[in-house]
Amino acid sequence: MSAREWIGKDFYRELGVSSDATSDEIKRAYRKLAKENHPDANAGNDKAEQKFKAVSEAYGVLSDPGKRKEYDEARRLFGSGGAGGFGFPGAGGAGGPDLSDLFGQASAGSGGFGGLGDILGGLFGRRGGAAGATANRPQRGADVETDVRIDFVEAVKGATLPLRLSSPATCATCGGSGAKPGTSPRTCATCGGNGLVSRSQGAFAFSEPCRDCRGRGKIIDDPCPECAGEGISTRTRTLTVRIPPGVDDDQRIRLAGQGEPGRAGAPAGDLYVRVHVSPHPVFGRSGNDLTIAVPVTFTELALGGTIAVPTLDGKVSVKVPQGTSSGRTLRVRGKGITKRDGTQGDLLVTLQVAVPAKLDDEARAALEAYAEASKQHDPRPEITKMLAERS
């Protein structure tokens, strides 16, 4: 994509957020729009497919702090004049000069524009190179993000899942050339394949993207019927995703090179799989430790004993010391989460007294006898003392 095509887009408007939106706001907006316009949910809807591509491209820039900084700086320098703005020729202004080469190709002795060239270089696909630099420089593909939900046990032990993904990819019909099978793109005669043409305005000479080839350096006479000459089409593919043991809820897993394809031979972006873990009805988690709350009787705490506690693999026997308080947590070593790096957590067992809602006559009589026998034991001496002082 040429400098004019990229800078002329309003990525904030595509996502429906303000230019000072936080990264979380941008992420939420992208997820909402990507879900609404996903090709799987809008079969045959070309408008939704184009919107899906647009929001994916916008998120690829705005989610990357470095790219977003460069994009914002370019907006500030050129001014965001609405759709296709920034003062580029044919983009909201009538034939104004393209300043990208003025900044991008300035030499060390050209009056100090080198800093601007460095800022814009990342967006325009070059770093202030020589006058022969082309507009169709290789550009790395955008990163893609998708979501997957797994259950609690899969998160603890790890899993291998098939992931069905619809996303932009190299067109399988033309192999990414954009030309109809059996034909090839031809070098643009106007710009000689550079993608740029020069023109003079007063004492200055400016370069701008070639209008005949749209800055690509090549012309496609017979576009591919599948991708319409773009070299990229949306396709559905199935990937195998390995979820590592001990993955956390909302953690991202990176699959290198599985994002959008690059342009002009550049590498593809990455695919990030965000994992959502469904809660377990019995177990919880604290870091690498598993947690469980176990109801016990008053006598089990007062007299002590051994209770059976479930684990994800079976059960263990846990010794309850005599006189244990309700709410105390006992630790069972090595029965937590084991990660790929070998770190191992524990099972944390929290004991909670279960008070019966109803008592039969025998149980009531026994409790009343216990209450009479334990009158000498005051469970709240400090409070009793304070009450006595205020009476």
TrEMBL record:
Start-end of CR-type zinc fingers: 158-236
UniProt domain CR-type: residue ranges: 158-236
Cofactor detail note: Binds 2 Zn(2+) ions per monomer.
GO MF entries: ATP binding; heat shock protein binding; unfolded protein binding; zinc ion binding
Biological function: Participates actively in the response to hyperosmotic and heat shock by preventing the aggregation of stress-denatured proteins and by disaggregating proteins, also in an autonomous, DnaK-independent fashion. Unfolded proteins bind initially to DnaJ; upon interaction with the DnaJ-bound protein, DnaK hydrolyzes its bound ATP, resulting in the formation of a stable complex. GrpE releases ADP from DnaK; ATP binding to DnaK triggers the release of the substrate protein, thus completing the reaction cycle.
Residues involved in Zn(2+) 1 binding: C171, C174, C224, C227
Domain of life: Bacteria
Notes concerning its domains: The J domain is necessary and sufficient to stimulate DnaK ATPase activity. Zinc center 1 plays an important role in the autonomous, DnaK-independent chaperone activity of DnaJ. Zinc center 2 is essential for interaction with DnaK and for DnaJ activity.
Assigned GO CC terms: cytoplasm
Alphabetical UniProt keywords: Chaperone, Cytoplasm, DNA replication, Metal-binding, Repeat, Stress response, Zinc, Zinc-finger
CDD domains the record matches: DnaJ, DnaJ_C, DnaJ_zf
Region (Disordered): 372-391
Names of the cofactor(s): Zn(2+)
Cited NCBIfam families: DnaJ_bact, PRK10767.1, PRK14279.1
Oligomeric and partner information: Homodimer.
Sequence ranges of the CXXCXGXG motif repeats: 171-178, 188-195, 210-217, 224-231
UniProt protein name: Chaperone protein DnaJ
One GO term of the biological process aspect: response to heat
Family of this protein: Belongs to the DnaJ family.
Basic and acidic residues bias spans: 374-391
Source organism: Amycolatopsis suaedae
Residue ranges of every copy of the J domain listed in the record: 10-75
Residues the entry annotates as binding Zn(2+) 2: C188, C191, C210, C213
Location (main, coarse): cytoplasm
Localization annotation: Cytoplasm
